[in-house]
Amino acid sequence: MTALELTGHSLIAGRTVAGTGASFHAIAPATGDELEPSYSQIDVDQLREATAAADEAFPSFSALAPEAHAAFLDSVADEIEKIRDAIVERAMQETGLPNARLNGEVGRTAGQLRMFAGVVRSGLFRGVRIDPAIPDRAPAPRVDIRQRKLPVGPVAVFGASNFPLAFSTAGGDTASALAAGCPVIFKAHSSHPGTSELVANAIARAVASHDLHPGVFSAIFGPGRTVGQALVTDPVIQAVGFTGSRSGGLSLVQAAQSRAVPIPVYAEMSSVNPVFILPGALDDGIEDLATAYVTSAVGSSGQLCTQPGTVFVPEGEKGDAFVAAVSTAIAASTGQTMLSPSIASAWRDGTATRDDHAEVTARGSDGSGPHAPAPVIHSASLEQFMSNEVLHEEIFGAASLIVRYRDVAELPAAAEHLEGQLTATLHLTDADAADAAALLPVLERKAGRILANGWPTGVEVGHAMVHGGPFPATSDPRTTSVGSLAIERFLRPVAYQNLPDALLPEPLKDANPWGVPRLIDGALEG
After folding, report:
1. Which residues are registered as beta bridge partners of 10?
2. What pLDDT digit, counting tens, does each position of 313-358 carry?
3. Helix residue ranges, H only, 333-419
4. What Gene Ontology molecular function terms does this protein carry (predicted)?
5. What phi, psi does 334 have (nearest 5°)?
6. How many angstroms separate the Cα of 399 from the Cα of each of 133, 275, 307, 344, 396?
């Protein structure tokens, strides 16, 4: 068997394992056809093989020296890029997403891994703090206390439907957990199993090439209600990463909290990403602004967690001109293939419900194939929006709601009425500065990322990015799932008091053999 042949089975600690449960096929959303091979699903007993292997791998993997650890992450990126064409070809079949989008995802996935390799080499994430002993301090001596951050243990990661690469097998959750020193058990999404298998095998090749314990990574196929729940409740698992629906995320949170020893679930779930167009932004360039909005709303068939689902637009002549330009652009648009039949069905249900509560401003045309519904924009007054919770619900896909407001002074109260969000966006000019200043404190409480004069789709992978937000955007607003700060989710601090130097871990020894950055008495060493 070559590296690119699909087996239709799980990968458990470097071994291909045929599941004992029912099999399933991926469905090509563009045609509705089944894709070969069929995928066997493991049972709970087989899952325990993966968690036991991860538990065995943790001591050695968590203690890797920085360069060996970073080189492994680089190798995962290299192995993925070696089979870029095969990954993109299969992902196109399984998701209906275009070649350019998927090639971008391969690049983003490899880039995330290399970014985390740099994080490991820098050593800053280890959070080393040293308060040296002061034996002659009065009235009492100070003991020697040294702190570092340790990986929490094996981590479960659930693949996302809308990002078959960047938020799936080797995506942000997996990359940040591996960078922290945590073995990963990845539960593949049933919509793109072949893509997941190809990437999983690339990770396994990197594990083997660095002579790491094979339990560092496993990828499994299994039913969410049994195997998924069993994975979260397995005592070996110490944290969970998830991107998906609110119902799916909350079920994992509930399972994790019901354990004898509860664990954190970092779930990205639901966001309408409000956009506030302030009056000055409509002084000129209305058509360009409308085109940019439509492009952001319908790109990738609207199946992005940062899609602008609610846009606040002033009443009046300029606001009317903006809505007219949006209507023209939407009317000329054509539906794109959605990721799966079930997602397309949920989109149709959601937009049909909204039809009963808001005005249809414009609707595009259906695309080719059975799962490419026409994009749609609805409109409502601010009063309707404030009094109708149906208008606050996320519709995952190419649908958005324009909310018309009379006075910019109404916007802080409207923002207060919103749920937690991944993003909030302001379109403004210098003339809107005072109004924006009044709105910003509310948006800071509501969102993880605040943008000015842009659109929220497109999440830069870097050191300052926050891709998270208050509930229900995520289950824990203190974290991010994108960027180098994501590693913090899978670490915990440990303090060492008065330990002899010979017993201290490498980053805490007086000689600092790993050369990691350290705070000595609160000041950066050196």
Report:
1. 17
2. 999 999 999 999 999 999 999 999 999 999 999 999 999 999 999 9
3. 341-355, 382-387, 411-416
4. oxidoreductase activity, acting on the aldehyde or oxo group of donors, NAD or NADP as acceptor
5. -125, 140
6. 61, 14, 9, 12, 8
How many angstroms separate the CA atoms of 3 and 18, rounded?
Answer: 17
DSSP 300-356: GGG--TT---EEEEESSHHHHHHHHHHHHHHHT-B----S-HHHHHHHHHHHHHHHT
DSSP-derived 3-state class of residue 409: helix
What distance lies between CA 162 and its chain's CA centroid? 10
Q: Percent of the chain scored above 90 by pLDDT? A: 98
How sure is the predictor about 3, in pLDDT bands with cuts at 50, 70 and 90?
low
The DSSP bridge partners found for residue 510 are: none
State yes or no: is 197 an active-site residue.
no
* pLDDT > 80? residue 1: no
| Angle in degrees, CA 472, 475, 476, rounded to 5 | 120
Average pLDDT, the chain: 96
Question: Of the residues 56, 79, 182, 305, which is catalytic?
Answer: 305
* Chain centre distance of CA 271: 12
Per-residue three-class SS string for 28-55: CCCCCCEEEEEEECCCHHHHHHHHHHHH
**What is residue 452's three-state secondary structure?**
strand
Catalytic residue among 56, 94, 268, 394: 268
Beta pairing partners, 427: 277
Structure tokens at 400: 């958005």
- Contact predicate 176/165, CB 8 Å: no
Percent of the chain with pLDDT strictly greater than 70: 99
252 has a pLDDT exceeding 80: yes
CA distances from residue 173 to 299, 467, 501 in whole angstroms, order as listed: 24, 12, 35
Q: What is the pLDDT of residues 75-128, one digit of tens each?
A: 999 999 999 999 999 999 999 999 999 999 999 999 999 999 999 999 999 999
Segment holding 174, helix H or strand E: helix 172-180
Question: What tokens appear for 415 in the block?
Answer: 């923002």
The edge-to-edge listing of strands for the beta sheet with 155-158 is: 15-17, 10-12, 217-220, 184-187, 155-158, 239-243, 265-268
CA 319 to each of CA 235, 284, 330, 437: distance values in angstroms, whole numbers, following the listed order:
56, 11, 16, 22
- Cα–Cα distance measured from residue 457 to residue 305, given in angstroms and rounded to the nearest whole number: 8
Q: What pLDDT was estimated at residue 46?
A: 97
Confirm whether 182 is a catalytic residue: no
Model confidence, pTM: 0.96
- Could you tell me which residues come within 8 angstroms of residue 418 by beta carbon, excluding any fewer than 6 positions away? 272, 274, 310, 392, 446
